[in-house]
Design brief:
alpha+beta; seven-stranded mixed sheet; five-stranded mixed sheet
Length: about 525
């Protein structure tokens, strides 16, 4: 009987039951499997090698963590808010917090968050209601943002209402959080003086207004264990960087010096039902201190009731604890769940005297951040410890090196440059003046300069992209190697006039009122998205 094959592509009878496939086919499959396994193994080794290479940075097995520098007007790293709504500007050096404020601590200065004058107010602009609206309309960002503080997204407007806007009066080390891959990723960051932030009643920065990124206390590691990433700004010095003391630390005056005492604060924060907390801020216009109530600037009417307790400022004022070993390594910590610094970070800080290296920086930039401070030490790091070294550097064909700025104040007091292979330092008068002023120079030559060209704004505009400040002396422009700031002394006539702002300090209350009024339209917007 003939077999029947259905229509379609030709088929062939199957092998008889129990037949064994040809042996060569089995070898081919086995070989193919071995080849694929080998390829996968090679790719895994290559990937592992790349990871190891990335994690190594001239320190054997140790990956040196980064400490970013973020200027006041920078949009921020991976910001939470897609379109920053504020424009900040660097702070006038005359308003910078004194470098003697706080106590020396691991290469920086630690200070109590409620120190009078630590922050500035007055014309501060920040939009917490706008941030709340943005997060209400972006659930992904809101969930990540709220996770930093351990709250739900429904509690965001209530938490924002516990904060108050201020301006940093010193370069401040914080833990910043970028919005990366749908999560809040921590990184160590120094915010330039002049940056607008929201702080809590303990004076701890909690939000960077420019981009909406959450902020927290810095990692408990010495600054010398990091490498600096980012451009130095005018007035930047590593030993001028401040951070707010943790809740286990006191910054106490002992024998006219400030000392860090690692113990719980003696005074507990006021209870929630008690009087509102106050921060003593500096008015940048009048240079006078005034008190500002913390929080209470958002209209929460119409919001769903708060069904969870908000974290207290004390409970949040602790060193960074990473949630993964990778995040711990990137922030200079030993391991996940532990605030202790990595042993390699501590060892590196000891080796370099707590002076962190700068990524891609030459010797001049190291001099600019020399913790010893002063024009002499900066010049020493830049090109030797003598004027002859500076002369050799300037007489070569190399481009001028970055100007090293030291000190504080509102005008340049002295500066050094090279003239005919000779290092020359000129001193400017300390009294306020207008027009051209005479300089006293070490080479005995008569020189003059326009007083306005020594001001902070003029110096900033005359500093090129490489960090070199050039000043015009009698028609010729010179590249300055180092410069020191000073605070000009008002003349007798101007001193009498300057007394006027003291009497206008009384209207400080209207300043707060204006801020509250300004927030009114914002709070109405806050109700719409959240309701």
């Amino acid at each position: 009987m003939s077999n029947y094959y259905p229509p379609g592509p030709p088929t062939y009878p199957s092998m008889p039951f129990g037949a064994v496939p040809p042996e060569p086919q089995r070898h081919n499959r086995r070989n193919l499997t071995l080849i694929l396994a080998a390829v996968v193994a090679v790719l895994a080794l290559v990937f592992a090698s790349v990871v190891v290479i990335v994690l190594k940075h001239k320190k054997g097995e140790f990956s040196i963590p980064f400490l970013s520098l973020t200027s006041a007007d920078a949009p921020g790293n991976q910001p939470f808010m897609a379109q920053p709504n504020l424009t900040n500007r660097p702070l006038d050096n005359g308003l910078r917090l004194s470098a003697q404020t706080g106590a020396p601590d691991q290469g920086t200065r630690v200070v109590s968050g409620t120190t009078p004058g630590l922050y500035m107010g007055g014309s501060t602009s920040c939009d917490p209601a706008g941030l709340g609206n943005f997060l209400a309309q972006h659930p992904g960002q809101a969930k990540s943002w709220a996770s930093v503080y351990g709250i739900s997204t429904q509690a965001i407007p209530y938490y924002l209402d516990t904060l108050t806007p201020v301006v940093l009066a010193a370069d401040t080390w914080v833990t910043n959080y970028s919005y990366t891959g749908g999560s809040a990723v921590p990184f160590q960051d120094v915010l330039q003086a002049g940056t607008s932030v929201l702080v809590d009643s303990a004076g701890v920065p909690r939000v960077r207004c420019q981009c909406g990124n959450p902020l927290g206390p810095s990692a408990s590691a010495p600054i010398g264990g990091y490498r600096i990433r980012g451009a130095h700004w005018q007035g930047y010095q590593v030993n001028y960087i401040t951070r707010v003391a943790y809740n286990t630390q006191n910054v106490t005056v002992i024998n006219n010096t400030t000392t860090v005492i690692n113990q719980a604060p003696s005074q507990a924060p006021p209870p929630a039902s008690g009087p509102a907390a106050l921060l003593t801020l500096l008015n940048p216009e009048t240079r006078q201190l005034f008190d500002r109530t913390v929080g209470g600037i958002i209209d929460l009417s119409g919001q769903p009731p708060l069904n969870e307790p908000l974290p207290t400022p004390t409970s949040l004022n602790v060193p960074l604890v990473a949630h993964s070993d990778e995040a711990a390594a990137q922030n200079g910590l030993a391991r996940a769940g532990d605030p202790a610094p990595a042993p390699e970070v501590t060892r590196m800080a000891q080796e370099n005297g707590n002076t962190p290296p700068t990524e891609g920086a030459g010797r001049t930039e190291s001099g600019a951040q020399n913790p010893a401070g002063g024009a002499t030490s900066a010049a020493t790091e830049s090109g030797g410890n003598s004027s002859a070294s500076q002369s050799n550097s300037s007489s070569s064909s190399a481009a001028p090196t970055r100007t090293a700025f030291t000190g504080s104040g509102d005008s340049i007091g002295s500066f050094t440059f090279t003239d005919n292979d000779q290092s020359v330092t000129c001193q400017a008068p300390s009294a306020e003046a207008t027009g051209s002023v005479s300089l006293t120079c070490t080479d005995g030559q008569s020189r003059s300069v326009d007083q306005s060209s020594l001001s902070q704004s003029s110096v900033t505009s005359a500093t090129d992209s490489t960090g070199v400040w050039r000043v015009s002396l009698g028609g010729s422009s010179v590249a300055v190697t180092s410069a020191t700031w000073q605070t000009l002394v008002p003349t007798t006539t101007e001193t009498t006039t300057a007394e006027t702002p003291t009497s206008t300090e009384t209207p400080e209350v209207p300043t707060t009122t204006e801020e509250t009024t300004t927030q009114a339209p914002e709070t109405s917007e806050e109700t719409t998205p959240a309701g």
